């Protein structure tokens, strides 16, 4: 998202590069990016990140596609680390609002407020049927279905 939109964070980008190196990816720009230390220059980070993505033959999404790609990572993290669910829902909610309520992540905006309300109150009005006993399961199920939909390319006759 950092390379393909006006959003994102240079520190997250450097962290991504470090993770990619640890996973065995190996390109000159990726190594340089992973080794950058604060204070970070966003222009330098964007330049190395763009080069690293090109070297890895990864297309750079832009606009709403970049936002959706970043959201995908946050949503996947909710599944792998449910203890951080509230923090990731808050980031998804902020992302949704910053993007004029981008349609594909709007449910996470609603789930964030439902989840937050249920931390303080016995009821909420954002997600039908959600209560304290099932909100975590609802969020996890929504994450799973969103990832399945996101990771499944549309068929030619679905494009209408």
Could you describe the 3D structure shown?
The protein has 160 residues and is mainly α. It folds into two domains: 10-55, no CATH class; 63-151. Helices cover 61% and strands 0% of the residues. It contains seven helices and no strands. It is elongated, with a radius of gyration of 18 Å.
List keywords for this structure.
7 helices, disordered C terminus, single chain, 2 domains, mainly alpha, 61% helix, 160 residues
State the share of residues found in helices, binned by percent.
55-70%
Anisotropy-based shape: elongated
Q: Supply Rg.
A: 18 Å
Number of E-state strands: 0
Low-confidence segments:
156-160
What is the count of DSSP helices, taking H or I runs of 4+ residues? 7
Describe what is shown at a glance.
The chain is 61% helix and 0% strand.
Layout of strands and helices, then pairs:
Blueprint: H1 10-22, H2 28-34, H3 42-55, H4 63-80, H5 85-98, H6 106-120, H7 135-151
